[in-house]
Specification:
Blueprint (H helix, E strand, L loop, with lengths): L25 E4 L12 H17 L3 H15 L2 H9 L3 H8 L11 H9 L3 E5 L4 H11 L7 E3 L12 H11 L6 E5 L6 H6 L2 E5 L4 H4 L3 H4 L9 E3 L2 H13 L2
Parallel strand pairs: 1-2, 1-4, 2-3, 4-5, 5-6
């Protein structure tokens, strides 16, 4: 193993060599809790909107709605998918409702923007959310102009990650070669298919995430074989990668 240090330290830092990113031509980023830290409170707002939608649509109480949201999310990958399959909901209405949130806590992140800009090749946002939500979030972060495209849940034909066909659809649409790509995610289960396809994979664990915003089942496998790197500082990690690429 190389002695090149990773930005993250402690139990989440894998002893991998950053030189494996040499040759990467496409950089693929999840959106929620990846390009922004979880503590800005977007995803918890979305979760509240989802629970409220379930309560209103299925005529159940708040606790039952929260439990149903979690059950659908765990079983189907997104609550939307569960509601589509089991209740035939209007997907456009659902997506508008759950993303009707306050973005004021999302602040520009020039350090992240600079690090993304320095990466060689194309950059994409690949999200289980919808394009308008991704556009609003990226605009608030000040990083929209660094991305060639956004691949959202609608482009995925409403089939969420981690389903294999969703990644295949992304690759077909973008022309990305998986062996020349890297993917950044906050959920390890969404990195399993990319790893098997040949992508470099990085799990983003923002500071404070474990104790505040995650269920235990979502965090299992931080040290899984399909997770090449783990960091709690995306901008710092990308700067370290850029450092290795510029040293070529």
């Amino acid at each position: 193993m190389s002695d090149i240090p990773l930005p993250a330290e402690g139990p989440h830092a894998h002893s991998q060599d950053l030189r494996v990113f040499r040759g990467v031509e496409a950089w693929i980023f999840d959106l929620d809790n990846t390009l922004y830290p979880a503590e800005v409170d977007l995803f918890s707002q979305i979760n509240r909107q989802i629970a409220d939608y379930i309560a209103r649509t299925l005529n159940v109480g708040e606790e039952d709605a929260i439990a149903q949201r979690r059950a659908y999310y765990q079983k189907y990958g997104t609550t939307l998918r569960g509601l589509m399959i089991e209740h035939k909901i209007d997907t456009d209405d659902y997506l508008r409702y759950v993303h009707d949130i306050d973005y004021s806590n999302v602040k520009p992140d020039p350090a992240l923007g600079k690090a993304i800009e320095a990466l060689p090749g194309r950059k994409y946002i690949f999200t289980n959310g919808d394009r308008p939500h991704a556009e609003r979030t990226a605009a608030a972060l000040g990083i929209s102009h660094h991305f060639e495209d956004i691949f959202d849940i609608v482009a995925a034909d409403l089939m969420p990650k981690p389903n294999r066909q969703t990644y295949d659809r992304f690759l077909e649409r973008t022309g990305v070669s998986p062996v020349r790509a890297a993917m950044f995610e906050d959920l390890q289960r969404n990195l399993e298919v990319p790893h098997h396809l040949g992508m470099r994979t990085a799990l983003i664990v923002p500071k404070g995430t474990r104790d505040i915003f995650r269920d235990d089942w979502e965090l299992e496998g931080d040290n899984a074989a399909h997770v090449d790197f783990v960091t709690d500082d995306l901008a710092g990690f990308l700067n370290a990668v850029n450092g290795q690429l510029s040293a070529m």
